[in-house]
Specification:
By secondary structure, the chain is α+β, with helices and mostly antiparallel strands. It is about 60% helix and about 15% strand. The chain is built from 8 helices and 6 strands; from the N terminus they run E-E-E-H-E-E-H-H-E-H-H-H-H-H. Strands 1-2-4-3 form a 4-stranded mixed beta sheet, covered by helices on one side. Helix 4 packs antiparallel against helix 5, helix 4 runs antiparallel to helix 6 and helix 7 runs antiparallel to helix 8. The relative contact order is 0.14.
Length: about 290
C-alpha cells in the first residue's frame, strides 16, 4: 500500500534519571531530508538513528526532535570547586578595588556560576540506549501514521480513476455520432450551395475527417495510464515519482482530446478529465 509523506508521532518515557521524548513530523519533499534536533550528549547515536530512519522512510522532509529533562538522583553528590570559587572571589575583589565596595553576594548566585558547583557524571550509556529504543518506537508509530494517510490517498486516486474511465467510455460512445453529424452537415451544406459531390471525393473527405477527429488512440492511452495508476497504488513501495509522471501523461492525453474536439459534449468531457487529473496531481505530491 502507498504511504503519505506527511505524518506525526510522539513517544515519551520516564526513567529515574529523567524524561525522554521524541517528536516526529514530516511534509512532502523530493528526497529524504532527515533533520535530527537533540542535545549534544546524544549526538553519539545520530548515525544509528539515521540508518533506522532510512530503512523505513523513502522520501519527505522529516523533523525529529529529542527532549531530555534530567532529574537529580538521591545518590548523586554535589562537589564544590573551591579553587574556582577563590578565582571568582579574587575577580570580585578586583572589581571592588576599581569601582568601589560591592553589595553582599547571594550564595545561591555564586553556586550557579559555571564551574563552581559540579555533579558526578552519571553513566550515560543507558540514556543513549533508551533514546535509541524510544526513537524506534516513535518511528514505528510515525510510519504507521503515514501508511494510514497513504491508504486514504489510495482510495482517493482509485475513485478518480473510475471517474476518468467513465468519461473515456462517454467519449467513445459519442465519437461515432460526431463523425456522422459532420458527414450530414457536409451533405447539407453542399445541397444548400447546389453542389454535387462525387462519391469518390466524398469518401476521401470523410476519411480525412475521420482521421482528424479520431481520438481512439488517446482514449486507449488514457485507459492504459489509468491501469498503471491502479497497479502503482497496489504496490508496497515508494511510487510517488511514478505517479507524478503518470499524472503528466494523463494530462497530455486530455489536452490532445480537447484540441481535437469538434463537439461540445466531448469538449465538456475533456475539461472534466483535466479537472479530475489536477485533483489527483495535487494529492500525488504527498505520496512517498
Amino acid at each position: 500500500m502507498i504511504r503519505s509523506m506527511t505524518g506525526y508521532a510522539r513517544a515519551e518515557v520516564q526513567k529515574p534519571w529523567g524524561r525522554l521524548s521524541w517528536e516526529l513530523r514530516s511534509v512532502n519533499h523530493r528526497y529524504l531530508d532527515l533533520q535530527l534536533k537533540m542535545p549534544e550528549e546524544f549526538r553519539a547515536i545520530e548515525n544509528e538513528l539515521r540508518v533506522l530512519a532510512g530503512a523505513r522512510l523513502g522520501r519527505g522532509k522529516v523533523e525529529c526532535g529529542l527532549r531530555f529533562n534530567r532529574e537529580a538522583q538521591a545518590d548523586e553528590k554535589l562537589q564544590l570547586d573551591v579553587g574556582r570559587l577563590r578565582q571568582l572571589r579574587e575577580a570580585m575583589d578586583a572589581v571592588s578595588h576599581e569601582c568601589g565596595p560591592l553589595t553582599a553576594t547571594d550564595p545561591i548566585r555564586l553556586l550557579s556560576f559555571p564551574g563552581v558547583l559540579r555533579q558526578e557524571q552519571a553513566d550515560f550509556a543507558p540514556m543513549l540506549a533508551e533514546a535509541k529504543a524510544l526513537f524506534e518506537r516513535a518511528l514505528e508509530d510515525f510510519s504507521a501514521t503515514r501508511g494510514r494517510e497513504g491508504e486514504r490517498l489510495g482510495h482517493f486516486l482509485t475513485e478518480r480513476t473510475v471517474a476518468l474511465a467513465e468519461l473515456v467510455a462517454k467519449v467513445r460512445e459519442r465519437h461515432p455520432q460526431v463523425r456522422d453529424q459532420w458527414l450530414q452537415k457536409l451533405r447539407s451544406r453542399c445541397a444548400e450551395l447546389g453542389v454535387e459531390i462525387e462519391p469518390q471525393r466524398l469518401a476521401q473527405e470523410t476519411a480525412l475527417a475521420a482521421t482528424r477527429l479520431d481520438v481512439e488512440e488517446e482514449m486507449s492511452r488514457l485507459l492504459s495510464h489509468l491501469e498503471e495508476v491502479k497497479q502503482a497504488c497496489a504496490r508496497g513501495e515508494s511510487v510517488g515519482r511514478r505517479l507524478d509522471f503518470l499524472m503528466q501523461e494523463l494530462n497530455r492525453e486530455a489536452n490532445t482530446l480537447s484540441s481535437k474536439s469538434q463537439d461540445a459534449e466531448i469538449t465538456r468531457c475533456a475539461v472534466e478529465m483535466k479537472v479530475i487529473i489536477e485533483q489527483m496531481r495535487e494529492q500525488v505530491q504527498n505520496i512517498e
